[in-house]
């Protein structure tokens, strides 16, 4: 099955564990983007996946693409003139409870914000079995939002979208407006539970939330991730629930992308919702045991974990 | 409010996690001192804090002062001639249970042991709202003990003291003698529970211990820290108790200084004992999630943690 | 007491925690061998221990011996011509659950596989109080298996053997054949529980397994390690059980060797089976708190942990 | 003597030696700013030095100030609201010939670009013996350029300025316009030789260039640094030349700031031009042997090097 | 232009600079192969390059391919069953004179040694403008040698070959025999000067050597690299010489591949021999300033260096 | 041949290259001692070498012995009670010219300073072909000086001594007094040229100095090392000179010990003075290409370098 994703991928700098930027001397450099992370996971698990984006032709922009290639992802990149847009950056301080993690978004005036539909290979998007993008792309600029809408509307296959709401990028009101325009072109919505409540006026249990969103925005599927609890999905009038799989070591970065990538790969390969969600939480659990947003998952270990979970069921 | 602390700050060498000096090839270098740690925390949380000490004018002595400045602490240092005293060193092997940590004290003949009252800016001490020092300073030499007594007696504000007893520096009997001389000049005593039992012949529960110590030494406040349990304080005839806040990642170094620094900052700013203790355990908890003895705490996150703890109370 | 062990020691490469070889840029280098690890632990805890092996005279072979010396082990090494055999290598990706660790064995055509009895100092083996080797040595080649048999038969003291079965080295059927030849020359058998079930057709509880093995192969002692549960031993008609000691930080590499080394050192020093097993689990627990297969244990801390465990008993 | 400098200080990320961002996994983090570097050097060599700036109140902004404090510099910082301006960043790939180094400027919309004169302590500037700033500050925004002019005009002491021209920040034409406005308020101009030719239409030898610039802009002093050759200065109708001091290890970052800092400290302390230039090249040479832009120079070693150079003269 | 290369790529482990395996604790991991390095350089400089090989489907084999992708190389890999062949390894200790570097080849029984022509996409090879492989591939096994011959004979474009002789892999006599069979299928021969003398009985100056080899083996082009001196080439009856470009920092690994990759890219793009050699030495010089065998060269900097060299000519 | 050396070995901490302790966060840990370094080199090159010393039974003392064992040295250590003496420490900042290196000696009250002759195995010393110690041991205490004298007088073989004068340990006058007592028991004196002039009132050329010292102190051999120039020796009325061998990478630590170790090994193995000196400078040159004081030299590479030097001679 073919999956095409598009969106910005930031370069993420992070100090060593237990340190802060205030006194750190070194930072690790990793790429961090919803669209590329989803494509990378789906591709590693068997999809014919490809990531589309606009990236500045600078050492930082090339850094983004090099790491994606290293993890095996195929890319189709519009190289922007160095003066025509920055590389988006994030500065991330991970933290163990009760300390809260911190994420400094430094993504103004990026190359991706200038992307127009004409710059992308529309044929690929039209022919893909699944097209995926996310809310962070919407937030970059009006141009980016328009492009996102045009691309989703052009897609003939499944049109999946992750809410991907970050307060450091825009505020909830702007997000609501943009989503009101965009969601009619979406059929499958992913969202993290805490982001839903930050953007929408939904109340009630997760089961109620997915039902409400599906109804209100006329969506085929709504899949809510609940970081420590698993996932809840609405599809075709039915609510599906999937517990998370406990992990002893936890690097949460990338788990959301791993979940979506595995779920989409399964859905497009013909799995039913329960099977897809189980693969999603399995990929997310394995991702939490590996460092960084992009992780070198292998299909065999996802299957082994899925099997061991199924064998525990009554 | 103004806080002045004085005492020796050691340079701490530590092998990487899970290693020992016996086979380690590298060590991290961090400063580790009760007086400087207390001042640094109080200063970061809003106090006008300053650390006084005598330090050898060598690369190691300058290293101590540079790190304190990096963490934002103001210092008033007497620079000793390189030949007139060593820089105190500690060699620390951290350990997870059931393995015990090891601390090798290498602090003989330090510059601080030669400090006389005339070398310090007495005006600062006399005018400070709070003066703080600790037992390790007492142990360095008779000169250091005399100086400590002279300084505390000269102080007009709150006179706080941490027991800070380390068997590698002196024995319990000598400590008792020195404390008998010194405690009349102290009004607020901090002590870690296990150090109290190593030095004093106290028996009974923590609540009894703080009461006994306050009575015996005529102290205004006695505050006992109980590493996994929180703090117990005696003040004005009342016992106050504060649970610790659980943390998932634990670097215990510096938590005691964070507790005292936050507690003193609060007390001097007019907080009542319960409020001060709660800030103390919050600062200690956050400190445990950051590596090293000195940690870059921020007032806003201490307040956020204090608020979240208060909101859990019935 | 004198202990002589022989067998191959691999050089182990491992990527940083949370990473995989697929995308790692660095690896740590450590030695990893059952026979050398057992001797190193026993030696650190008081035995007069020595490791015998055949090692290629290359930078990698010398690396193996240098690390063993660093940890205080005496060695008696036959240096093989660089062209006459490789240095055995392993590539290890540690993992936290639910991800499984991976061990790539790269140990074909090693120098050790060419070892003949005449190359070793037979006097040392004949006179040792305890001789120890393990199943991995058997698997290397027919020559190595013959040599192992010859050496054990030559030994006059206790003849201890660890099952040490790795599917990457040979299969269960070959192992059974080789063991059928060898076990008559063994009196004390160590085995990890999961390896027993991979090699033998044993069924039943651990208590039954040790009894069955002792009876079937006419062994004086059978000691089964159960990684999270401790050890079960059969000796002289009696079953002995020992709980594991919980540890908060876990690097499992080397714990099996630490267990055997401490147990053998105790048995040879005259301890009874319960005492020996308790020392074994204490050494294993401490080993889990230190990184790498070889760990710088100290006798005093093993004793302290043994004492603290004994004081908890009713 | 008192020195006040103001200007932006960037946070510099750099991959390990011999690597590029395209494939690097880590970066070192160091501060890199002309104004702060000049003040830090002058301060270490004996001046009463202070750096003024506007910095965002974010982890990155606090990082800048923490490192400056670590190197002993006093600061007077206006903390900008996180939303009101970015922290300026640079991405630097060092290179050995014939490969050229690369510097990616990422300094749009910084907090410093919004600085107005009213935000700074004008008294400090008016009373300082020397005020120093540089061209990079001019380039940030019209506001920054206006502020720079206002501050220099307010200064009563020596008004020193470094050309500090970076093509990544603005172009030569804009720089000329801004300098035409500003240079009347300057009396001492520093410039690197290759930057002079990039900005001005000067021709001729370095001796002619300093004379031409001094005449054209009515400057008291013009000091040209010639990285591998030393410095040439015009003062009071006389040309002064100073050879560079050869170094075997070369990290060129920070050498320009070390030169200016030492030269200004000497001039303000009453040294004549030759003496000041000699201290400048000595500080620059020592700086090249230490890694990073900010270096922990010591006065005694600068003096020793100055002495050894003087003793070589005929 | 299209370039197809094939051959084994080893995984190279190296201790930190100035250390040896005997006492090192860590190693860097990099890929190191003539065929992949040539393709990677040519691809970065503009060729449509692709590397063909057989690689074990293990963490080590995947590591090889991931790094090649990271550097932007397209690959066409036959994945071998883990049990069907090892990943070739090298262990490299770099050294500065007068110490000699050491290279331990650990490449017996690799997956590549089992490659048969039928496993490769012959169409790609037949249609490529340039096909390249090297002597190390010949040495792996008779199968590999036969396959190499079959592939070169199938190629319709330029058939380039690098001598790539390593004493650790085979001896000169075997190499001569294999080359006698193979060279008739080659038209362009690359060789390092010291390897030529190790394999062939050539005497005389480099100019004579290239002429002799071209005549004896009926080659269109012979290009000899002389590490510190540059290159000497024979083509069409004419000898071409090109000086090396001096570099201040030297990591020699990968320079040979950079030279060949750039030279082939130029030749295939229509450059004459002198132009091609100049690009070759420029790429080699830049490669020496970057760490590791694979280096992220950029076309613009190769051109800039070529231009600066040309402008120096009389 | 058998060589016994005795003396203190310090634990050396050093910041990363290009950094200073003032702002460093990590330090490497290496052992650094004249007596152990000489024995280690001699042992690696073929001597039956052994190092005798008194070391505190602490993590730091054990660290010293572990590294010596790692490099293959046999030791005979008196373990001192932790309270009975410190482990000697040095803090070393390496530097490239024109910056001067800095060495902070922190070696007061060490365990070695309490060593008495009765604690050492006198038999080993009496029977050794060569006994070696150095001036730093003399400086530790009167006890150490007395012990040094007693041991040298007890030796029946060659009695070699290195001047090893460090101003941070004692002053020249004390050194002269101690040497006046000791040198009558010495027959072979090594000294670095700059240390000779710091201790003795010698004038004249190196050739004159060795002659003067030999005559004045009635020494069989005097060998002067001249770091960049090689060595000059007096023996039996003849002056021998040996040029140094140039190296491109330079870590000077340990080169002096490598020189003495190789020279002594050769002399004791029957080489003449010229041969011995040539091996000395070869070992020193190789040592400069490896990091740290102790270096893993191999006999074959010393021989190869000796041969290449001899083949250059007319």
Short description:
6 copies of one chain form a homohexamer. By secondary structure, chain A is α/β, with parallel strands linked by helices.
CATH class of chain A: Alpha Beta
General shape of chain A:
globular
Radius of gyration of chain A: 18 Å
Query: How far apart are the termini of chain A?
Result: 32 Å
Features:
nine-stranded mixed β-sheet; alpha/beta; UDP-N-acetylmuramoyl-L-alanine:D-glutamate ligase; 314 residues; 13 strands
Model description:
Chains A, B, C, D, E, F: It comes from Haloarcula sebkhae. Chains A, B, C, D, E, F: Belongs to the carbohydrate kinase PfkB family. Chains A, B, C, D, E, F: This is 2-keto-3-deoxygluconate kinase. 6 copies of one chain form a homohexamer. Chain A is α/β, with parallel strands linked by helices and 314 residues long. Chain A has one domain: Ribokinase (UDP-N-acetylmuramoyl-L-alanine:D-glutamate ligase), CATH 3.40.1190.20. In chain A, 38% of the residues lie in helices and 24% in strands. Chain A has 11 helices and 13 strands. Chain A has helices spanning 34-44, 59-70, 122-127, 135-139, 142-154, 172-182, 193-199, 206-217, 255-268, 273-288, 299-311, and strands at residues 2-6, 10-14, 26-32, 48-56, 74-80, 89-93, 102-106, 130-134, 158-162, 188-192, 221-226, 230-235, 238-243. In chain A, the strands form 2 sheets. The first copy, chain A, has a 9-stranded mixed sheet, with helices on both faces. In chain A, α9 runs antiparallel to α10 (273-288) and α10 (273-288) crosses α11 (299-311). The radius of gyration of chain A is 18 Å and the shape is globular. The model of chain A has no long low-confidence stretch (mean pLDDT 95). The interface between A and D is medium-sized, with 27 and 27 residues. β3 (26-32) of chain A pairs antiparallel with β3 (26-32) of chain D, so a sheet runs across the interface.
